Input
Amino acid sequence: MALVLAATGLFLYSRLGSDLDRTIEQGLRARAADVAALVEQADEGLREARNLRGPDDGLAQVVRPGGAVFDSTVGLENEPLLTAGQLERTSRGATFFVHTVEGEKVRLLAEPVTAQDQRLVVIVGASREPRAEALEDLRTQLIIGGPIALLLASIAGYVLASAALRPVERMGERAATISAASSSRRLPVPRAEDEISRLGGRLNDMLARLDGALERERALVANASHELRTPLALLKTEIELALDEPDSAPSLAAALRSAGEETDRLSQLADDLLLLALADAGELPLRRTSVSIAEVLDSIATRFRRRAADAGRRIEVAAPADLVALADRRRLEQALANLVENALRHGSGTVRLKAVDVSDAVVLHVTDEGRGFPTQFLEHAFERFGRADGSRAGAGLGLAIVAAIAHAHGSAAIASNQPDGGADVALTVPVTAKIEPTATSGQ
Output
């Protein structure tokens, strides 16, 4: 603000000086024209001219090119106001000079004229004292008023800045109180529709997302703890039973088999949680190779066909024999196995594994003929430890792992219900090329 005021003061000072100089020069031109006209008439001298008398009329002098005074106002009869060199400059046209006459600064205008059959130089002048006084008055006003204006502007700026930043201070104080234990708290947002209000709204949106992520993490820990509790409790019970009957070989063998099953369950849960943790960190390792989709689907069908037959159900595969995808075969089989596991556990009828070639990708579908997903559950189907009312629900971490594997491949998993009944879960993987058919896929 000090720089702005100083620049403004300098501009006003220089502008006033220029305006005053221009006014003086305009007056001198008019005065020079009057003097030239008077000299041309030759009726009276400059001393007797009424329009050139008085203390405020300035001065006037007419000299010959050699420097001799031809005529002048009172007091200027003896010496020319200009030197010989300056008179020489006037031969090229009207010229302005600044001189000191009797201790007073004056502005002079010298203009050549032809009068009374000879070349003469008309010199008129006006005092610069009024100009200096006007500039001094302005300078005094700027010196006195500048600091006052700066002080008032500083106070106003401080008040405005404080008012503008007060909402930021309130938001900062509230932010200092937000922690994991009070993650539902939000920042106070001012009513004004300005940058601070929009910033507060965006920060509250971010806090809401973080709060949702924290709630999901809490739910994950709670559900994981619940899932771990059951096999651990069963494992402890089997061990206690084996210890109660140490001499009974059948009881001991049954206890060990049950303990082994629960250990496998714990190991699988730990592996699933580790996979999801790696996926969250964006570090899920993939070994991408060219994979025959028909071989992958046939492998999954073979793995589960006996279990399906025991339940009186079938597994069918429909995939072009020449379709190849760029994917991690082990992860792809893991995702498809989870989907078939869910279809056998929660669905009914025939389980179908189908591959559809779509442009530069292949879409893998796993469908069944059961009741399908509850409508309200579809948007939450891939959440971890998702649960829904009805005969079909997200079983543990299976669907969440499917979504993580699909995301690692640069795609997504989609859950839907078929028009004629049954669930349909699809994931997409990129296609590399087609190979020559070597085998056909069957039921």
In short: Residues 32 and 45 are 15 Å apart (CA to CA). The first helix runs from residue 2 to 41. Helices lie at 2-41, 84-90, 129-177, 195-244, 249-280, 293-310, 329-346, 398-408.
